């Protein structure tokens, strides 16, 4: 974790080929297996500079102190998990050679269990009031439905998503672009403390590592990989949230986007994702659950308008009712022709409709009662 950058694909391939101990042994010797080097450089349009990577790994190895890192983690109440551990989320394997070498965790929740039903909620740091409201409300509803919410712990949509999730019953997961001991942004200190109590904070960086712009972008792949699907709440055309969305697509995860005002630059990225059919348009937590949930088990009911009493009438009775005029009356024969039914049916249905308060007699025949006119 100390000698290579996060998401270092070359180190990932070296570990996959020789195991962690074998990879570290080659770095210590200052010589990589020639077969591995040939495989990495032959026939590639842009082969990695293996010698440069090896020199950088060796330089960092001199300053690495894994025992000190473990002691610092223990002091913080953190734990270190590696592939194969019970708490390791196996969906991270989808990242291939860019899979994290290991993860530092702080918090009471079990990471693997929390990610079984989880949604990533991402968006702009400079969120509008609309974006913050949607993020918090949607996350709270997801949490109440038993879905963990994963985000990056930043300002704006991230922070609103964590706060919303903490208001529900499920866990909230914050994936950092810095060491587990660093609170960034500092203003979210209390929020991170709340996440640790009810969820878990995740980092692939060793303690003491400061956040940088590249680390934020590389971190986004972990957010996308952990979750069953990603929701982009707000995003400008140049936004880190769109980077997370691209990782979700590459990993064949579900991707959704929330529409916003057409005049808002903060929603332009969401609208582009929807327009290009890269993301599904969602407007509520139940839309999200239907998208990412189990087939048949998490189907959201189709939204409907309010049910009025006339909706419960059978087809012939409704046809007769529709044929009754609102103001001037009409005789049964006229109503029968308009409704397309026989006279006997009209007479029986008019009696039932009158008893139910829908129609009444007038000097000119049958007409709707005022209450029925309002329902029309």
TrEMBL record:
InterPro entries attached to this UniProt entry: DprA, DrpA_SLOG
Domain Smf/DprA SLOG: 80-291
Pfam family, one: DNA_processg_A
Family of this protein: Belongs to the DprA/Smf family.
Name of the protein described by the UniProt record: DNA-processing protein DprA
Species, as recorded: Sphaerisporangium rhizosphaerae
């Amino acid at each position: 974790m100390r000698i290579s950058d996060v998401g270092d694909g070359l180190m990932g391939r070296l570990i996959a080929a020789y195991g962690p101990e074998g990879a570290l042994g080659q770095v210590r010797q200052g010589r990589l297996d020639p077969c591995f080097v040939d495989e990495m450089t032959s026939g590639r349009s842009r082969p990695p500079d293996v010698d440069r990577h090896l020199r950088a790994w060796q330089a960092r190895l001199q300053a690495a102190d894994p025992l000190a890192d473990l002691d610092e983690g223990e002091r913080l109440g953190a734990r270190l998990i590696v592939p194969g551990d019970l708490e390791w989320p196996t969906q991270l394997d989808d990242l291939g050679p860019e899979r994290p070498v290991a993860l530092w965790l702080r918090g009471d929740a079990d990471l693997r269990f929390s990610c079984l039903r989880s949604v990533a909620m991402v968006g702009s740091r400079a969120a509008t009031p609309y974006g913050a409201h949607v993020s918090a409300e949607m996350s709270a509803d997801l949490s109440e439905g038993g879905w963990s919410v994963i985000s990056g712990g930043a300002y704006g949509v991230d922070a609103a998503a964590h706060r919303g999730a903490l208001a529900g019953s499920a866990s909230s997961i914050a994936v950092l672009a810095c060491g587990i001991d660093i609170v960034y942004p500092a203003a979210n200190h209390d929020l991170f403390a709340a996440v640790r109590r009810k969820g878990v904070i995740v980092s692939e960086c060793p303690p003491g590592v400061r956040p940088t712009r590249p680390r934020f972008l590389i971190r986004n792949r972990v957010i996308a990989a952990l979750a069953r699907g990603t929701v982009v709440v707000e995003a400008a055309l140049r936004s880190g949230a769109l980077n997370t969305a691209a990782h979700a697509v590459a990993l064949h995860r579900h991707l959704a986007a929330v529409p916003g005002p057409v005049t808002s630059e903060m929603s332009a990225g969401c609208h582009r994702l929807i327009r290009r059919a890269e993301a599904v348009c969602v407007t509520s937590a139940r839309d999200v659950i239907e998208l990412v949930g189990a087939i048949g088990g998490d189907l959201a009911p189709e939204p409907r308008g309010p049910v009025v009493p006339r909706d419960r009438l059978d087809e012939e009775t409704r046809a007769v009712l529709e044929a009754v005029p609102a103001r001037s009356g009409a005789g049964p024969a006229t109503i029968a022709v308009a409704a397309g039914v026989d006279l006997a049916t009209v007479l029986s249905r008019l009696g039932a409709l009158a008893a139910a308060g829908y129609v009444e007699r007038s000097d000119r025949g049958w007409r709707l009662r005022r209450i029925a006119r309002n329902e029309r």
